[in-house]
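U., I forgot to send this yesterday:
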Amino acid sequence: MSSAVAEASGFQVNLQGQKQIGMGHAGTGLALDQASIFFNPGALSHLRQNGFMVGVSPLISKTAYQEPAPGNATALTSNPVGTPFEFYGSFGAAESHLRFGLGIYTPYGSSVEWGNTWQGRFGLNQLALQAIFIQPTVSYRLTDKIGIGAGFVYGIGNVNLQRSIPLQNAEGQEGHAELDGRASGIGFNAGVYVQATDKLSLGVTYRSRVDMEVASGDATFTVPAAAPVAARFPNTQFDATLPLPANITVGIGFKATEKLTLAADVQHVRWSAYKALRFDYAASVNGATFTESARNYKNSTAYRLGGQYQATSKLALRAGIYFDETPVEKGYLTPETPDANAIGASVGLSYMVTEKLGIDASFLYVNRQERTDEANLSMGVPGTFKSVGYIPGIAISYNF
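Result:
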């Protein structure tokens, strides 16, 4: 499961490689390891060794809420620990310009639990959104300086959304709605890598939009009310489409000294694809065959900066920082993604246990700005939200 409420803009998860996380998640302009399958498929052709790596980044996030005056009551999420993961493998003949790779990773997700007694329970009780991308990749080194690559993306995942219904029986029990379904979609990831000089490298990557479609999900309603009212909420099935936006990233790598490498990325996310959250029902629910709430996200940009210092032949140290713009405009703040501009700071290290076996570790702290939204244009919950996240990570790699 992936939890992104406090980690990235919208519900994007930026935890695709431990080395890169340690450098503020910058890596488009570098050929560091097999994580180039995600960061820049063109850089994969410049890796001279075959190998694989697997890693996980346990994500601990908390979001606090305060309702508008004069109430000023508060609530705090009890989110489960998320486990975004990555697996990469690459292979090719030693002298070949052609290399093949496979990546499996979690680029989008959200897991938030508000409970069924907080002030905004009619907007959301809990949400679990998961997307796993499977990306077979081909990379070709055109020259000693230029590499190109592309990968087909097949996305699988699921969504579970629950909220209270404002109907009560004599004992004060409220109604409950749960939407649960599996989703899938397709897309691609393509990139170009240029080793311009011995010190300077450049990269650009385009990751396409992926429309995750839910077909025949289960909509379950519990309504503790009189039969005529309960009959308006039949259990049925639903269809929905959630657009996972396209990304354009430009990166630079610079070898400042023999031991120090610097990296910078600028990532533009086409969040404007997310106009509304809509569920189409197979049967009429409360007099309607669909529900729809506006989202109207705007495109956003993230700025990333990091560095790596090769302390010894076996030990590398890293640090990074980034600024991530929110795509959520004023009036559209919701408890499912109580988003705001964020600053992230990270550290990391790598240690080569043997010539072939390595361990990478990272730690990322994310502080999302406190944000107040009194308007309610998207079936949201007016009030003030504040989120933080703590993400340790570890990976094991083996080259052969």
